[in-house]
Amino acid sequence: FWLKHLVAFAEHAPPCLTSVKPWMPFQTPDASSAGVEVVENHESTMELEKAASHDSWTTSPTFQLGEEDIPVRLKQRTRAELRAIFQNAVSQTMKMNHGIKKVPIDNKVGHAPVGWLGKVALALQRGIRTEGNHPKKVFPASSEFEVPQPEYEFELVYPDLFKRVREACGIWNLRYVAALELPSPCKKPTLSVISSSEASGQSASFFFLSPDQQFLAKSFVVKDTKALKSILSEYVRHIEIEQSSLLPRYLGLYRLRMKTAEESPEVWIGVMPNLFAGIHVISLRYDLKGSTAGRTASSKELQKERPVFKDNDWLHGGQRISMPSEEDRQEFIRLVRIDAEFLSSHQLMDYSLLIGVHQKVKGDNYRIREANNVITLETQDQIYYVGIVDVLTKYDVAKRAETLFSGTLRCRNCSCQPPGKYAKRFADFITENVNIHTGARAGGMWRGRSYG
After folding, report:
1. Could you say which DSSP state residue 265 is in?
2. 284-436 — its CATH code?
3. Which pairs with CB-CB distance under 8 Å and at least 24 residues apart come from 60-67?
4. What is the pLDDT of residue 432?
């Protein structure tokens, strides 16, 4: 059933659909019995998106059977039909268990947004649905939804730069939009929301999660927005060059201006892959800054359903980041140092290495490929999901005062340090906690591999 949808989807693809660099193979009993492998790849999906941006497409593609290119008769389809075909193909592929798995229930977080957050979530999803044609648009007030929508402005900031980030991550726009847009004919948002306190953060931010939990949309304060804009061009080049970088993948920055007197009229939201959207249940979570001063999970934190542990907890628990070889270990350390140097060069500090730990269960299938865009490290007993988070804090006057106060009255190993010292301490701490484990494996985005 799903193969018919994929073939129909492929009917509109250009000849590059059969190019040789594979992105993600799909194979069914029917296809394999005929000696055919249906292959989608990074380059072809980019071409397909260009086609899907028009109402119809008249190019004559070919379908490869063995070494022979067979012409395919076209049936014109609207962009909406292409979108539906794409969503059906992905849905059926997940059901067939061919390499893509849904997030387990124990990893899912969040609840339905209500009130003002419900309006923001709905506005974001409606805007993302149109971002391909209208990166900046004014939506009129509407009463067709369960919660009446006020008039609002929607803007995808620097769309060309964020498109490059998505391409570098292997996340094609059709998948991104399909995961985050408001499905028709929904009359209420389908995103989930969690507060900063639920995520162990210290700001007043809130987080939306896509229905499949693969993408995280975080509200930014003005300082965060300015910081991201100031580094964006160099950040994009860094991600394109260092495709296994541990830095967060910023896939879009949105500005919403709600024309209402309620709450804040302007909201900034950044979208990135969800680090903890793996296919295996995460039992332990660590936030490592490289400091031991006050870096122990509080009793309040330990009472949470999903507590986040800190540096001292990591050390006392005897945890280590395990790499399969000395070559991989040195490459991981190089990435940590080059990422930290990049952040330091832009006067950024207070970031963390976030680690999720899955304790393996005997009998479970650990050969299924991850669908999220993060680095995974696997040993005989555990799987680690790793990435650097919270990278947009500038070392400003307030932080300088905090360094002086903490360093003078408390201790010199306090968390708040100038960017250069912070980067060195962070990288040194991670280096000391990376070892070689025989039989370990590295996957996901490691060495530029992407399965998104």
Report:
1. S
2. 3.30.810.10
3. 61/10, 61/11, 61/12, 61/13, 61/14, 61/15, 61/17, 62/15, 62/18, 63/7, 63/10, 63/17, 63/18, 64/18, 65/34, 65/35, 65/36, 66/35
4. 95
- Choose which CATH entry (2.160.10.10, 3.30.800.10, 3.30.70.100, 3.40.50.10490) describes domain 104-273: 3.30.800.10
pLDDT of residue 452: 39
Helix (H, G, I), strand (E, B), or coil: what is residue 132? coil
Average pLDDT over residues 408-427: 77
Burial class (CB in 10 A: 0-12, 13-18, 19+), 120: buried
Higher pLDDT, 285 or 48: 285
From 271, 231, 227, select the one nearest 248 (Cα to Cα).
Answer: 271
Would the CATH topology of 104-273 be identical to that of 284-436? no
Task: Give the residue extent of every domain in the chain.
Answer: 104-273, 284-436
Averaged pLDDT for residues 367-393: 81
Question: CA dist 171 to 42, 137, 223, 242, Å?
Answer: 8, 24, 27, 16
pLDDT, tens digit (0-9, with 9 covering 90-100), for 189-239: 999 998 755 554 555 689 999 998 889 999 999 999 999 999 999 999 999
**Which among 251, 280, 84 has a CA at the least distance from the CA of 170?**
251
136 closest CA partner among 253, 300, 278, 223: 253
pLDDT of residue 425: 95
pLDDT at 442 over 60: yes
Q: Which two tokens stand for residue 7?
A: 């073939």
CA atoms within 13 A on the CB side of 138: 3
